[in-house]
Amino acid sequence: MYERLQPVFDFIDAHRDEFVKDLQTLLRQPSVKAQNLGVEECADLLIELLKKDNIPAIKSPVDGAPPIIYANIPHSNGAAEKTLLCYGHYDVQPPEPFEEWISDPWGAHIIDGIIYGRGACDNKGGVMAFAKATYAYQQVLGEAPLNLKYLFEGEEEVGSPHLETWCIQHTEDIQADGMHCLDGDISASANAPQIELGLKAILYVELIAHGPEHDVYSGDAAWVVNPAWRLVQALNTMVGPQGEITIDGWFEDYQAPDDVDEGLLRTESARIEVDKVLHHFGIKELPWGKTPYELMKERQYGGTCTICGIKGGYLGEGLKTIVPSTASAKIDFRLPPALLPEKQAIKLKAHLEKRGFKDIEVKVLTARGTPYKISYNEDLAQAIIEAATEIFGHVPVVNGLTQEDIIKKVVDMPVVITGFGPPKSNLHAPNENMPVDSYIRGIKFAAAIMESFAQRAKS
Asked: Which CATH number belongs to the domain containing residue 266 in this structure?
């Protein structure tokens, strides 16, 4: 199979500079939906780049949101049995803090063979990998070996609030035998992609504690309740000493991993080199004395409660002696099957009220997703595992769950997420990057996935 692909790989290598230049062009266009910065302009640019690569992309309007970039490329003679939906997003995370970047986050500068820019890994690099793989097939073999559909959205980084409605309105357009998302980085320990066979949902809330109507001189602290302390006390009821969630009834609907999943966990955890993991995260030891197996199981199948930020009172230089009027915390919950975000939000509110924190305001900022898990034996899963092994020279890390399920909710099909960025890609952080070699390998990875999936008989 891969002998047939070698001329495609050779074409990708021969057009390396051109493919890198196009990625740089896309990276230089800001597209931060959270700040309404440049997203519409980025959609126009992406259409232009896709059409340059003979991909018949169109802008599909979305009420209240940036357009969906959609394309349908059926196999010319109708002989292809498989249809692959390639998903990605052209919006990116805010680049702040700017001062921590080693170069302009919108500059896409290449430093020592590495492209630095917001979106390089998450997810403009993946979007361009799909496009360039398709273009290489067209130029060398006439077309890709299967039917291809593309769906690139512009508000993934804010929770895709309008995507489900669009999918319901375009159900036929997204019918496929499987959906793949090229997003993220590879395992620091295994030096191979992480194949994600499922999804955790997300519940993102803001807890707000209210105190006096304005900041109060701290000498009068006895007269008022300090909202910062109220917030800290409430937060302390939500997790235990080892980070375990202690919210009442939180796991009553939990679905534990089966024997196959447990076997994969043990196989993958045995491959982990702890020193590489410590170096990757910049830590000195694994948390709470847990083993790699325990932490991997928690990462893949556990629920998490993460304080993403706390705000309240005076945090500037010098002293300011006050009792703040408010304090707040933003919290991210990751929910494995079958913990549904709307139901978990109700449990959180009930938990706080039961423990005397009825005064803590709970704002639900995002309640997104229906957690799912697909079988290791699905054609798409096996195709991507095979392609990853061939392209990276290592057996990939097969994870049970990760964080894209809105489309699957409308059209039930296998969905697999994997990436090709470097372990230190810094996605969502300053100095997000994509080595040129990793990007070119990612294009070959996308081509190999298409080939491997096409070769599997339709079930």
From this structure: 3.30.70.360
Residue 336: which domain range? 201-368
CA–CA dist 278, 137 (Å, integer):
40
Q: Pairing state of beta strands 201-210 and 361-368?
A: antiparallel
Whole-angstrom CA distances from 364 to 207, 338, 358 are: 9, 19, 16
Element (H, E) at 51: helix 39-52
* In contact, 88 and 183? CB cutoff 8 Å: yes
Regarding whether 143 and 40 lie in a shared domain, the answer is yes
Q: Distance between CA atoms of 437 and 418, rounded to whole angstroms? A: 17
* DSSP summary character for residue 421: B
Least confident of 36-45, 306-315, 400-409, 422-431: 400-409
Q: What is the pLDDT of residues 27-75, one digit of tens each?
A: 999 999 999 999 999 999 999 999 999 999 999 999 999 999 999 999 9
Q: What is d(CA 419, CA 321) in angstroms, rounded to the nearest whole number?
A: 49
Contacts of 275 (CB under 8 A, 6+ apart): none
- Is residue 197 within 8 Å of 400, Cβ to Cβ? yes
Give 385's DSSP letter.
H
Is residue 168 within 8 A of residue 68, CB to CB? The reply is no
Q: How many CB atoms lie within 10 A of CB 323?
A: 23
Q: How far is CA 171 from the centre of its chain?
A: 23
**Domain count of the fold of the chain:** 2
Asked whether residue 139 falls in the same domain as residue 36, the answer is yes
Find where tokens 């019918």 sit: 175
CA dist 261 and 376 (Å) reads 8
